[in-house]
Every structure is written in C-alpha cells, then in structure tokens.
User: Fold this.
Amino acid sequence: MKMKDELVFDAEGAVIGRLAALTAGKLLTGYTVVIVNAEKGVFSGNEAKITARYQAKRDIQNKADPDKSPKWPRRPDLLFKRVIFGMLPTGRRKAREQGMHDLRCYLGVPAGYEGKGVKPVKTAEDLHGKSVTLLTISRNLGWSK
Assistant:
C-alpha cells in the first residue's frame, strides 16, 4: 500500500477562503493535509456581518426532523473543517468522504508538527480592508475557551 504525501499548512494569518480552496484541491488529488493554528486564520470583512452569516447557518433547522439539519460547529478547528467540506464536490460522494478522511485540523501546533507548517496563500497583511480571526468568530458564536 502506497503512503500518501502529507502537506502541513500553517493557518496563522492566512485568509480562510483561499486556504480552504487550496486544501480542497490538494485533498482531491490524493494528498493528506494537516492544518495547524486553525484558530488563527482570518476572514476578510466586517466582523458583525461574518458572525451573522455563520449564526444564520447554525440556525437552519429542518422542522420535520431536526436531527437531519446541517451541522455548523462553534469550535474553530471544526468550523474550518466544515468550510473545507463545503468546497469539496457534492456529486462525487466517495471523493468527498475520502477527502475529509485525509484532513486534520488542529488548534495550535501539535508536538509532531512544530516547525513544519508552510504559509502558501495570501495572508492578512496583504489585505487592505478589515479582517477578523476565526477564533473571534467562534467566540461570537458561543464557543467558550
């Protein structure tokens, strides 16, 4: 059995949408992707509007069977994984499941990945407007840690 190549991305200061798109592409091509410092990724835009958008997604509920409603977590690493899940193709169920199986997101940097993270995408310093971290959005959604 062939080992998959592992890519380690450091989300500190990285724009979440760009990193998620890059990650989704790598997952579909067969890589195993590890994201460290997931809580330090940034959204570009107004904090109140971003919080409202994700709160609205959390509030969606199927009235007939609430257990079948879409799940949007509060915890930053799981929220980041959910964003990436939305970027994987819906028509290719096996590819989507395999991609999520090959993805790892961590709060902070685990001992085995210290010094290995790469910042491959546009960072918050390159943005000219407002930006807010994923940690702040998660706290606004009710995550307490």
